[in-house]
Each structure stands twice: as C-alpha cells, then as structure tokens.
Amino acid sequence: MHSVPVKWTPAQIRLLRFRLRLTQQQFADRLGAHRNTIASWERGRRHPALRWQRRLDAVSNGWRPVPEACDILGDERG
Questions:
Q1: In the list 12, 26, 39, 65, which could disulfide-bond 22, CB 3.0-4.6 Å?
Q2: In this predicted structure, what is the pLDDT of residue 61?
Q3: Which residues of 51-64 are buried (b: 16+ CB within 10 A; e: fewer)?
Q4: Nearest CA-CA partner of 77 in 52, 58, 53, 54
Q5: Is the pTM here over 0.85, yes or no?
C-alpha cells in the first residue's frame, strides 16, 4: 500500500471548517463523509486519503457538491 503525503494537517482542516462556519456534521455532509471521519482528521488520529484531500481542495476553492457529484466521486456513506 502506498503512503499518501499529508497535505491537509488537522489544524488546516479545522480552520477550513471554521472559515466556512460549519459544524463537523455540516462539513461532513458537504464532503460526503461521516462526522466521525472529520473528527478523526481534526484530532490527527487519521489523515485524509488522496481522494479526500482533493475534496478538501475543492471545498476550500468554493466547490459545493451536489448529490450526483457525490455519487460520481464515491460517497463513503453509501
């Protein structure tokens, strides 16, 4: 298994969420992730895989996914 370089630190993820004025649940919904995933990233227990880093990049640039986009990108909540 290949290691993905960590681009998004816990502090950066938390700061992005605060700048967007979102709760962890709202942020998770926007990304198509579980709230627990966001909490784990913000605590540094886990690091976002490359596909999640790409979504974080997109959200930080103003992207708001629609349900169809989450289906295409592979919404982990299934």
A1: 26
A2: 85
A3: ebbebbeebeeeee
A4: 52
A5: no
